[in-house]
Amino acid sequence: MTLQFSLASAHPETVETPCVVVGVYENGLLTSAAARIDSAADGAIKRQVESGDINGKAGSTTVLFAPAGVTAQRVLVVGLGSQKTFDAARFQKVNIEAARALGGLPLESAVSWLADIDVPGRDASWRVRTAALASDYAAYRYTATVKPRNPGKQPQFASLAFAAGAEAQTGLDQAVAIAEGVRFARELANLPPNICNPVYIAEQAKAFADAHDKVGCLVLDEVEMEKLGFGSLLAVGRGSANKPRLIALEYRGGAEDEKPYAFVGKGVTFDAGGISLKPGPGMDEMKFDMGGAAGVLGGFVSAVKMGLPLNLVCVVPSVENMPDGDSYRPGDVLTSLSGQTIEVLNTDAEGRLILCDALTWTAQTFQPRAIIDAATLTGACVIALGKHASGLMSKHDDLAAELLAAGEAALDRAWRLPLWDDYQVQLDSTFADFANIGGKSAGAITAGCFLSRFTDGQRWAHLDIAGTAWDEGRKGMATGRPVALLAQWLIDRTEK
Ligand code: BES
Ligand code: MN
Ligand code: ZN
Description:
This protein is α/β, with parallel strands linked by helices. The chain has 2 domains: 162 residues, Leucine Aminopeptidase, subunit E, domain 1 (3-Layer(aba) Sandwich), CATH 3.40.220.10; 320 residues, Zn peptidases (Aminopeptidase). Helix content is 35%, strand content 19%. It has 14 helices and 18 strands. The strands form 3 sheets. Strands 7, 8, 9, 10, 11, 14, 15, 16 and 18 form a 9-stranded mixed β-sheet that branches. The longest helix has 22 residues. The two termini are 33 Å apart. The model has no long low-confidence stretch (mean pLDDT 97).
């Protein structure tokens, strides 16, 4: 469950709560809320600053228990770093650390003044939204296949109020909806591949549609896709006992005759590489190869929960890429749904082979106003941009600008790579219209170039989230990116 969020209009020194949360900058500079507590409590915060117990380092936390003169049972003092350089990213960080600290205390609720801090260029609504999303992010626990680490003796932190005016209500409402989308994406992506297979994702999509009035769901199985000519997608799925699915969710929040926006997400529930088998170390992380699917589904959930006045479709091609006697092979020539033939030079470049048919089908079926795909598509994108920015590719400068701006606003940033035709020759093939890989250089871009051949005449952008969809390593979990970016982009479309 997401945390419960609300707005509070109160004074920090007199609010009735198990805990108030206030910020202190480096060098002992108090925020106005901290100053009010400090003077009511006879200098309790300043004393700890002078003793060095509170240093104001960004994200540091200190608990004062039952300080005399204030109503709250505790005061959680959160370090904000230097005031001069305080920015949006720091704002997010301190809210995450505050929520972590609250989660470790024996209490169920708190009132936070951390949405009350000035952030250059951002208003109160943004601050409340970002603080709530950061808190919910920190509060998320994966428990589907593992027992909670500290089983339930102490009270569970469950609700957080932010001191802010009524003008922040929009931000709070958006946060509640987007937090659900982010959780949906994280949970789906974190599930192991022996649970989360193509049929499982289809069931989750159907269940969501059944629970929501304006949402419909269509699922194509392998027999139906065969009839329609999904030759590229089906080839990838052939080596697995878990059969492919094409999943489409439709949300009608806009006018009947209005064309929808479309999301398409790569749903490879496990990518072993196929016959071009991946090396063993870290292969388990390829359960996250449906991160694009999780991200677009989470974006869809957010849009529905916000009740945005627009039409939206979300299409997920889902397969498992495995080595087997029936697997597709390097050298195979596939006929895609578009009719174009593809020479397979590496069965590990499978994401583009399922996305291409999904993009063709989405364009034909819905004539969308714009198509955004998200995919954990290339290791090359991780080399280029690391874990901080998703790779954005589009031939449409206006659409690219919209997405970059949405990423900035939502702190879920993307960075643009070129999709110039100069790169297209890298896909040349003697035996088919083109090949599925483009050689050593510019791997993220040539993957984008491959997809561009299936989006002719469409207003289309591609997000390579290979570096951003999960935190790597033994303890790494799904991040829920790019749900916040997609949700923000849709919000922006409704404000036009
Ligand atoms: N799912 C991978 C991309 C990936 C790799 C994402 C590592 C995150 C971390 C994709 O299907 C893949 O294997 N891509 C190949 C393409 C290559 C064969 C042209 C890659 O990036 O190595
Ligand atoms: Mn692969
Ligand atoms: Zn893959």
